[in-house]
């Protein structure tokens, strides 16, 4: 039988890395929650403290989530995060709030986006969909 750490690691293989500017925050958050659900540790995402018998799972989950952060974000939370909720709250504070400024920036990017290379049309369409999704949420 696989250890909880192994199942957590396996569940997080399909979670995309969070982009430094948080552009994919909502998708990243949904994938993290889904992965935690898949390894039966979703309650650890919101727990401010962890029981001693769940500490190994919490540490594995903390490492899995931290592994999906870019270096700049990782360094900003690495020294202070002791439970998975610490990272989740830090990312929510940083990227989870839509403001007029972030909405205006997304609109600017959407309307100024140009496809420079026909061979990368799918990347261009993916970017357009991401920006449109960001504006509708």
Helix content: 55-70%
Main beta-sheet annotation: none
C-alpha-based Rg, rounded: 17 Å
| Rough outline | elongated
Q: Distance N terminus to C terminus?
A: 41 Å
Which structural class fits the helix and strand makeup? mainly alpha
The percentage of residues in β strands lies in under 5%
Order of helices and strands: HHHHHHH
Total DSSP E strands: 0
Quaternary state reads single chain
Low-confidence segments, given as residue ranges, are none
Mean pLDDT: 86
> How many DSSP helices?
7
Task: Please describe the topology of this protein.
Elements: H1 4-11, H2 25-38, H3 55-66, H4 71-77, H5 84-95, H6 100-112, H7 121-136
Helix pairs in contact: 1-3, 6-7
Task: Provide an overview of this structure.
The protein has 137 residues and is mainly α. 60% of the residues lie in helices and 0% in strands. The protein contains 7 helices and no strands. It has helices spanning 4-11, 25-38, 55-66, 71-77, 84-95, 100-112, 121-136. The radius of gyration is 17 Å and the shape is elongated. The relative contact order is 0.13.
